[in-house]
Each structure stands twice: as C-alpha cells, then as structure tokens.
Fold:
Amino acid sequence: MAPILVLVFMTAGIVFFLLYKRPVKMAELPNGYRELLTEHVAFYRSIDEAGKIRFEKKIKELLGYINIHGVKTEVTDLDTLLIASSGVIPIFGFPEWKYYNLRDILLYPGSFDEVEFKIDGEGTVLGMVGSGTMQQMMILSKPALYNGFGNTSDKENTGIHEFVHLLDKEDGDVDGFPAALLEKQYTIPWLNLIADTIAEIKGGRSDINIYGVKNKAEFFAVAAEYFFEQPALFKKNHPDLYNLMTKIFEQNPPHLSQS
Ligand SMILES: [Zn+2]
Structure:
C-alpha cells in the first residue's frame, strides 16, 4: 500500500476513535432524581424497574457530554432532568446512541425570536437546533419544556421535538428522512406516507399538528411528539405511521400513566 494511503487510513482511524470511541463520562444525577422523574416524566413513570434503571443510565450518559446553560435564567435540577429526558425518550430503544451533533443547550426563560440567532424564519420560537455557526447547539424555551411534560393529554413536547431533529440530522440533513435509522426497504413507504399524511393535514382530515405541513423535517418531529405523547391514540388513528415509527425508534412507547 502506498505510504500516503497508510497515512490516510491511520488518520481516519484516529479521527474515528476520537469522535466515536471516546470514553463516555457519566454525570452525577441531582438529589431526589427518582422522585422528580416519577412526578414529572410520564414515560419514566410508565416503564418497569429495569427500564427505569436503563433510563437513568442514559440520562447520566447524555448529561456527561452536553452542557446546559441558562440564559437570563437559572438551570434547576428539574430543568436538567426534563431536558435529559427529552433526549433519552427518542433513543430509549437504541442500545447505544450518542448525540454527536450536540454539545450545548441554551435554556431561555421564554420564547425567543429567530432573528436573534440570525436564522431565517419568523414568529414565536419555542425550540431550535442550530446550524452553521450554531452547530452542535440547541435552544429551548423553559415554559415550552415544562408544557411538554406537564400536559400528558396533548400531543406536544418541544424537548422531544428538538431531539428528534437531531436524530434526523445524524445523516447530515434535517429532512424528515432519518437515513441512519430507517432500513432501505422502508424508504419509499416512509416518503409516501409522509406525502399522504401531509395532504391529509392540509385537507383538514388529520389530527396531526398543522405545523407538520411546513416540510418533511417538521412533519417527522411533530409526528414523533404525538407518537411519544399519545402512542395509543396515534396507533389507532395512524396505524401505518405508527408501525413505521416503531421501526425507526426501535420501540413501542409505553402507554403513559397519569401522575
Ligand atoms: Zn422543528
């Protein structure tokens, strides 16, 4: 083998090792975390003891490699646990998963303006994953984070929504097509289902959040919120979507019990 090729392979190997095999630091969980999770996170409350231990381990892992910064607000233990739960719920079915495209989370006391972050768009924003210079960053509104977990009878959860964008982004694009998670044979059925369901929403014939018509990425994120917040209803109203999403997320979400 030419020396240059050896060098290329060695460099690629080292980069791969540094990025993907770096040892994961486990974070300490705040005092009383079990009580906080049980009280505030319906998903956690609804899984068995072995599941709870796995959930806690994933939280420790996630908090080991992300930093949460409060912007004009203090980050409380509960804020930290809700943010981590938003990240763990979509990856709960995966034995190994790290959000390599996330390092910092900015938590805001209210909604924020996209203009502030020089990102195209308009209106009130409750959460966002960064691109360009904001790469590896997520921005969340505290009230939206709490609404997501406080109301278990709706189909919305901003924290989960933003983390699902990151899963989608794992293949490089936030496009509603999580190539890393979807086996090839499901590509066409998935894209067809998205197109059909967006047409239903536009025609007023769907109970999926209207925001999903914006594009395929938003469709995937709002459908995932519904999938995790109201799995039984989602399965009943959207059996084909439900079925494909259990394949994407490799889990049947627990039917959530009220607190
Ligand atoms: Zn979105």
Q: What stands out?
A: Strands lie at 67-70, 104-108, 112-113, 124-125, 127-129, 137-141. Residues 3-20 form the longest helix (18 residues). The pocket of zinc ion is lined by residues 161, 165, 218, 221 (CB under 6 Å).
